[in-house]
Structure of Alpha-D-ribose 1-methylphosphonate 5-triphosphate synthase subunit PhnH:
Amino acid sequence: MNFDMVHDVQKIYRKLLNCMARPGVVANISQESNKLNIASGLSNSLLALTFTVCDAEVSFNILGEHEESIIRKVHNLTYAQSEKTETADYIIVKFLAERGKIATAFGIAKKGTFIDPHTAATFIIEVETLGLGPSLKLTGPGIKDSVSVEISGSEAWLAARTEANAEFPLGIDVILVDLQGNIMCLPRTTHTCNLEVK
């Protein structure tokens, strides 16, 4: 069965909205993304999310290996325009992208304005695993009291995200996807506290 650019994208979008409204909640998109059979340089799950958020009206950049060839492929598949990190709407971060590069990207990416905070960039970051666990405590809107989650590799960008989101309502939303197709969201309003560094 092939990936359906309408129905499968809609299913992923609904899961994404639920995760954004309820930070720390984990959904899985592997049933949809495993239908993809496109050589893009991105994992199926990361590509499926890219299809979900990218179209001709938005811009993007890629962080990770083979950036230029992936940028061309994503543009051809989605018609989204590639731009520098400073001006891109979506920053797509491949698994094992350089830590320093990710942290720098958080520092220079769009954080919106006080009049239009929604013009900030969104990061889509591929990690090894994520789920419930002892590493990170989340608090904020959409969370009753707090929730503890496990996000492998978060030490590569967590401090940079906290700094980027220091001046509410400015800040950066983060969509996480792991190698098993699990997704989780960290809106700019979500506060994080390290419980155990992995």
